[in-house]
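Give me the 3D structure for Imidazole glycerol phosphate synthase subunit HisH.
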Amino acid sequence: MMTTPTIALLDYGVGNLYSVANALSVAGGDVVITSDPKVIQSADKILLPGVGAMRDAMANMVAHGIDVAVKDVLATKPVMAICVGMQAMFDYSEEGDVPCLGIIKGAVRLFDETWVENGHAIKIPHVGWNRVDADTDHVLWDGCNHEHFYFTHSYYCDPAPNDDLIIATTEYGEKFCSSIIRDNLFITQFHPEKSHNAGLKLLSNFIKWQP
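Predicted structure for Imidazole glycerol phosphate synthase subunit HisH (211 residues):
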């Protein structure tokens, strides 16, 4: 009989914790909200949520030792990160001019206000539903490819020159990276917890994932 995996939902001052916790529970996970590195180490899987400013997010991670704990567990456990959590995985963010975790090479950049969508300059922030295209047979995207997910962000992740890491893209004026999978790390710019059935399916896939 398959046991329910324990998912450490990391509390590093970025908000939206209870919405994510509820969605994970509905999707089949046993959730513990924590900033304790020992609890993070003992969990089966890790999820970094994300709503907030990058400078505050990184400062809170460092203050609680979450930055070190995340790097440690990446060696052995599945890790998912959402929105600001995804952006924190990169080398550097233009938001707050702050260094990040450096797990994925690349930078987090402000949307370019000269990009055009439907004949008009894009609005920043990018808020609302948009299609996510993941042309892959990876188990994490089972039943979710070309579905619409909910976004709310002013910055996007640019993994250049390692664009081969991109597993999914979204069009907003121009095409940008909306998801990466590397080894046991799964990151999304959109919010699965706000994305109804498609989001719950994606979280369920993560809960079941055995990289």
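The chain has six helices and 15 strands. Let me know if you want a second pass.
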